[in-house]
Design a protein that fits this description.
The structure holds 2 protein chains of 2 kinds. Chain A is an alpha+beta fold. Chain A folds into 3 domains: 147 residues, Aldehyde oxidase/xanthine dehydrogenase, molybdopterin binding domain (Aldehyde Oxidoreductase, domain 4, 2-Layer Sandwich), CATH 3.30.365; 263 residues, Aldehyde oxidase/xanthine dehydrogenase, molybdopterin binding domain (Aldehyde Oxidoreductase, domain 4, 2-Layer Sandwich), CATH 3.30.365; 223 residues, Aldehyde oxidase/xanthine dehydrogenase, molybdopterin binding domain (Aldehyde Oxidoreductase, domain 4, 2-Layer Sandwich), CATH 3.30.365.10. Chain A is built from 19 helices and 29 strands. An 8-stranded mixed sheet of chain A has the order 3-5-1-12-9-10-11-20, sandwiched between helices. In chain A, strands 7-15-14-13-8 form a 5-stranded mixed sheet, with helices on both faces. In chain A, helix 9 runs parallel beside helix 10 and helix 14 runs parallel beside helix 15. Chain A starts with 25 loop residues before the first helix and ends with a helix. Chain B is an alpha+beta fold. Chain B has 2 domains: 121 residues, Uridine Diphospho-n-acetylenolpyruvylglucosamine Reductase, domain 2 (2-Layer Sandwich), CATH 3.30.43.10; 243 residues, Enolase-like, domain 1 (2-Layer Sandwich). A 5-stranded mixed sheet of chain B has the order 2-1-5-3-4. Chain B has a 5-stranded antiparallel sheet with strand order 10-11-16-12-13. The longest helix of chain B is centred in the C-terminal third of the chain and has 20 residues. Chain B is globular, with a radius of gyration of 23 Å. Chains A and B meet through helix 1, helix 3, strand 27, helix 17 and helix 19 of A and helix 2, helix 3, helix 4, helix 5 and helix 17 of B. Chain B: Pfam families: CO_deh_flav_C (PF03450), FAD_binding_5 (PF00941), Fer2_2 (PF01799). Chain B: This is Xanthine dehydrogenase small subunit. Chain B: One of its GO terms (molecular function) is iron ion binding. Chain B: Keywords: FAD, Flavoprotein, Iron, Metal-binding, Oxidoreductase. Chain B: It comes from Bosea thiooxidans.
Amino acid sequence: MADARRKLDIAVEAGLVGSARAHDSAPKHVAGEALYIDDIAAPEGLLHAYLGTSGIARGRLLKLDLDAVRSAPGVVAVLTATDIPGANDISSTHLHDEPVFATEAVLFHGQPLFAVVAETREQARQAATLAKAEYAEEAPLIDIAAARGAGGRLVTEPLKLERGDVAAALVESPRRLQGSMTIGGQEHFYLEGQVALAIPGEDEDMAVLVSTQHPSEVQHMVAAVLGVGSHAVTVEVRRMGGGFGGKETQANLFACVAALCARKLKRPVKLRPDRDDDMAITGKRHDFVCDYEIGFDDEGRIHALDAVYAARCGWNADLSGPVTDRALFHMDNCYFYPAVRARSEPLFTHTCSNTAFRGFGGPQGMVGAERFIEEVAYATGLDPLEVRRRNLYGAAGRDITPYHQRVEDNIAAEVIAELERRSDYQARKAAIREANRKSPIVKRGIALTPVKFGISFTATWFNQAGALVHVYKDGTVALNHGGTEMGQGLYVKVAQVVAHAFGIGLDQVKITATTTGKVPNTSATAASSGSDLNGMAALDACETIKKRLTEFAAKHWQERPEDIAFLPGLVKIGAREIAFKELVAAAYLARIQLSATGFYATPEIHWDRKAGRGHPFYYFAYGAAAAEVAIDTLTGEYKVERVDILHDCGQSLNPAIDRGQIEGGFVQGMGWLTTEELVWDRKGRLWTHAPSTYKIPVASDRPRIFNVHLLENAPNREPTVHRSKAVGEPPLMLAISVLHALSDAVASVGNYRVCPRLDAPATPERVLDAVERVRAEAGR
Amino acid sequence: MRETLRFLLGDRLVELDRCDPTLTVLDWLRLDQRMTGTKEGCAEGDCGACTVIIGWLDRGRLRYEAINACIRFLPTLDGCQLLTVEHLKGADGSLHPVQQAMVECHGSQCGFCTPGFVMSLLALRLNEAQPSVSRIEDALAGNLCRCTGYEPIIAAGRRMDEIAPREADRFLQGRETVAARLTALNDTKTLSLQGEAGRFYAPATVEALADLVSAYPQSTLVAGATDVGLWVTKAMKRLDPVIYLGRVEALHTISDEGEHLRLGAMAGHIDVRAALATLSPQLDELMRRFGGEQVRNAGTIGGNIANGSPIGDLPPALIALDATLVLARRSEGRLERRAIPLESYFLDYRKQDRRPGEFVEAVLVPKLADGMLFHASKISKRFDEDISAVCGAFRLTLGADGRISEARLAYGGMAGIPKRAAAAEAALIGRPWDDEAVAAATAALPQDFTPLDDMRASAQYRLKIAGNLLRRFLIETTQGATETRVAGLLAEAGHG
């Protein structure tokens, strides 16, 4: 195993790395030949499980009569908590607050109570509706206000970040203001819903095929629920039909129930909830209320900031601790606060347990940061972009984050300036101001917002990865690593790294399904870390094999090791040039090991949560977006008309894939901040439980003018894999520009004197409300 | 009577003697045929991951249309051709130009929605040469992608005909052969199909339909199944028997009868849109926004009305236009027809004036006369493929003196049924069409409606919008140069 701290100094060179290769599965995607879990040919004797769920949000389960379920057509078995041989606990953060099946306390509407197994999925689904449950029902706490009103029970330890004496700094600030912002949640709406297929083997063995971002966690959860060692459980996933964080922990339930049923019945069992049930049961992006007080001056400089970020966490902790932590880690975005205090309030509510979602709390923190800027801009009468610029992190003295990490790679000012130029922001802004004067109903708005996103899991131990690389006698390569493919193009990026390392074609590298049987103890494919971690681990394995091959070649052909190089299409051994496969064939005969594991652990990072201090992020990814919108002041309807983006991917491993992440992340973020609204009724039932009522962007919602550029000549300062930067999450936050463009358009009705304080999601209804509020305030 | 279901799956003739009446095309493909390229994303016709293409003979002409397999019942494919993503590759394994374009443009990420997009793009290619970006967006409005942000998929839509000319597409080249095969399958016999879960009837004539509805008054009449499909996939209802109207050719007819248009109950939204667009561009835009393309292809005017939804978008428009509904039933050996004002069909929430044995046969829509002003607006969270928070449609008749002599203000989403605003209408009569008229009508709206709070909008917003749409109407009819729309055809045509 290589030294994890070793810096692999990799030259940036032409070749496979950096080329805009298509997604490895693209030809299969378009032909319907890419297999998802539900497409895999069913094993002989397959049964189907379905979950029976609670019909109330809060109360005690007095009686659960399952006779009608048992006697329904096709039903083979009904399982409850008493059928669990191991632990009735799938709490991912080990707080023991997440049972597989409720036994007494019912904590949200849709909580699993039992599973029914039948010959067909339809039969199981029908039967699940026949349970008769009796409850002692209580009034549920649905939202943040209700949770606070009832005492503000927390699901996990809150976090406080503090630097300087914020109370004193607020007092000393020339001006102060207070405000509050609500920031909505978001349903992942992965197109492929949750699904798991469990196949029992001999002894206690269980193979689980599951749509998950975190095979190792599923493995450990299944083992715990079944009461067996992790070595008895193998979890495999070739691809997901989307994840976005929604399959980081949320797949555990479905995998564990399928495995439990399979174990009990000694037959393969598949569990695939209907979309509506999936949406009701699984967690979502946390909605937040951010209460803030800002101290600032007439020049728009922030002196002090005190903010509380309260989150609706749902019925258990799940990942709410790290999610609310990351919100605080991004409450600065690109801005320096001379004195700052930020506190999280991860609140217990009787709703689904909110979870990871692309950005992982960061977007909510950053939306707050941009609101702070906007408040100061309207209070001082300065252009919001100018206020942004004046508060950017800068040189020593202005480069320390609220968590005491020094910002060493800051390029925000350059990115903003370049985008301002490319998007012609100032001229367009002036033109919009002018046009709005002549347009009584439709008003336009424009905003340019930056992004700085910290890269690394804040749980430092997750920043490790393993890979397994086999070179076969014919020179072809099988690649496996702990990262999962959910559409983000991780597999092809890592394959490019491997092919590049050996100097072989991409078609010589076979990408194999992620399985706990090949690479153990992996981290979730999350936190944008997939290619950073797995690319390095795979490269490490390649380097190990190359070292062996080099030593062999040096000896075999009597050359110095430093005269041996793996070049595109050939290996140079002194003056001799041979094909990679010839070298491999020779090495095999000489009994050289052609397989290696690789390992990587991110260097330099550390984090002391209790102290609120450390260096949690290896580096930051930057970007900026300028959005222009039109709003209808009669209806609140709007259209995003143009977006310009400049985003920092470091030295991109694959510009086509990265561009896809930027565009897709942006549109997903735009949906979050505009039309995607989660609504629960008073009984705690999710009202928006299907795409008919929950509206993610469609094709016509994307900006017609969409200029997306990767920042050129911007290799990562840190020695990441080929000096690339993580790209999964950061672009989502570029969409904050849309919220602020809408806000700018709203502000026009008050002649830009009243801060619109437009909350998210900015549905047409919220936009119209803001228009009327601004009009009323401006008229006073 | 014929007791065998017959259709083409690609080139292969499928004949089934038994089939459940509500077996979905998707389940049949995935579970029975093990053709898993077509995906289930939502099972309610909203996400488009299950998009397939139906080839059907519309009065002798072969039409290819994208539909949602998840809410389409298999027996409704009688006499049709079903194309799935598995049928696209060439015999040599080469990708179809649509597939090739998607790969080249990086149109797939997770890939789960991709087969649906491929099928929607193929349907577009088969129907239109050089579609505009707007048309590509419309054609894809019923396909959700959560990964790409759509830009590369739109690019693929523009690229596909460059890779290979559409005229050379093998599905267009093979039209005549397919049409001939389908012609041979189409007869005038009633299809009667038994399955474990019930019986399915598909009559081919109005008379046979009337007989069946009369014989089975408790049957479920199915047109496009864009709502009934959900009764099955979501509410898990068992429907028995099912009477499908799609094979009754006479019900598809749209005719111009001088003063009015006559729209057969089974006229699809695409055709109805084209017909109503001749009355007003406002109707063109309203219908552009019905569901997604797959729903517009499957859905019918009769279904949109007979379903009785308080948020169907055609009823407000048609009520404002003073449309007449024609119902028919078998009575003593003859067809008995009843014509009623459309507004009187809607009695109460989900309760309609449809008598035992009756079915909707046609809608008569009067054209706009001189002096009439018309407006239709749909307000929803998302522009495309969303359900109205409020749908408002208004027709004003101005007298020679410029004053309003008749007002028909119809709203959806404001009550349990699509409903006229009687008090607001009264407030308009006798007034010039101006700001004061709008203010008076707006002030009267709370007498007409007590809307609900729900996941689409608050009651307060609904009421506010209901009035503001009158203002939009006024501006659009009196201040032509003022921009009032931020998206859609009307925005592109000048109100934007």
